[in-house]
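Lab notebook page, bench 4
Experiment: in silico fold of construct C2
Operator: M.H.
Input chain length: 314 residues
Purpose: comparison with the prior construct
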Amino acid sequence: MFRNESGGGARSGLLVVGVVAAAAALLAGCAGDGAGSGDDAGKDAAAQAGLTPEATSSPSTADGKPVDGKPADGKGADPLATVTRSAAKPLAGKVVVLDPGHNIGNAAHTAEINRLVDVGNAHKECDTTGTETNAGYPEAKYTLDMSHRVRDLLVARGATVKLTYDGDRPYGPCVDERARIGNEAHADAALSIHADGAPAADRGFHVIAPKSMHVGKADTRKIAGPSYTLATTLRAHFKAATGEPFADYLGGGKGMTVRDDLGGLNLSLVSKVFIECGNMRNAQDAEELTDPAWRQHAALGIADGLTAFLEGKR
């Protein structure tokens, strides 16, 4: 969630042996800034990308075949099919940066995370604590788990994957550093993973793309278009894999917002988006977000979306 950089904003926070091994692992299991922007911002980014906000990418597999989203268990893309596709190493040579939203240690370092940093068009808190389910499952724990799951899938497909942090620091990193890590890695794509903290009646997931802008240190003019394409591609694959509906409380119910108030996007020089995988305060979303099996399907959707984008598919 984005109390600072989580997206909900003011609402809360191969060889055959290799294939078999990967399949067995899969079967064993698997941001809070301001309010979402309106349709005008979406149209602005769409113009940069040559798309319309209404356009929904058609999900496709690494071999170009459509994903029907209806495996035997009815929950999304078939994990075994995904592993089979991975054998071809379609992402060899590609660099992906995954940014797990927040840090479980932030709550114990309030002075540090409340320090203001320059995000180009404003100064914002270094980071925030994120949100949690009503039962106390923290967003920061969810985002790190999801990042690990997505990383494993992408590495199996040949990508080089870097995390902005991996449970290896007491707090942060600050939002400007999160963007800088992606820039310095020369990432082909970067993704910040979050879950929202909206009112309990609100449900669904959404993706956030950067608005085209050049203010102070922020210059997203070159990445706004490709980032919008990444956002729509990711949105389609995540929905196909999970069945999660588009968020019904922002973005006109289209599962997309375009924003200029997130430092992680404002300062990025590489194609980057945020995903709010669901609303942790909603009972149905919370049940899914805390379910390891659902999280694995969600990770597959994210990995497939990133793969499709990096292969130039939509």
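Observations: Strands lie at 95-100, 116-118, 123-125, 160-163, 189-196, 206-210, 214-215, 218-219, 256-259, 272-279. The longest strand covers residues 189-196.
Next step: discuss at group meeting.
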